[in-house]
Design goal:
By secondary structure, the protein is mainly alpha-helical. 86% of the residues lie in helices and 0% in strands. It contains three helices and no strands. It is elongated, with a radius of gyration of 17 Å. The two termini are 28 Å apart. The model has no long low-confidence stretch (mean pLDDT 93). Keywords: Copper.
Length: 93
């Protein structure tokens, strides 16, 4: 089971909201809305995606990584490594 399983509906709700925002930006471009207004909405979408990513990472750390550390061994090292790489990807964006 995914680490976010208990909060799956919340994650899906966030992603659907983001999807709606993206569709709104597409409409704005189609309607030739002022570029700064479009960029403002793109910035809001980026912030929403970052927030969703942080929520997923938090779930991964509190569930998957915590369980792996409790078990110990190579699995713990693997999960910590995965989390570290995910954090690195997030801070690059």
């Amino acid at each position: 089971m995914a680490g976010y399983g208990q909060h799956k509906e919340d994650i899906i709700r966030r992603l659907r909201r983001i999807e709606g925002q993206v569709r709104g930006v597409q409409r704005m471009v189609d309607e030739d809305v002022y570029c700064i207004d479009v960029l403002t909405q793109v910035s809001a979408i980026n912030a929403a995606l970052q927030s969703c990513a942080v929520a997923l990472l938090d779930e991964h750390l509190s569930c998957c990584v915590t369980e792996a550390i409790a078990q110990g061994g190579d699995r713990a090292k693997e999960k910590v490594g995965e989390a570290s790489k995910a954090i690195a990807r997030l801070i690059r964006t």
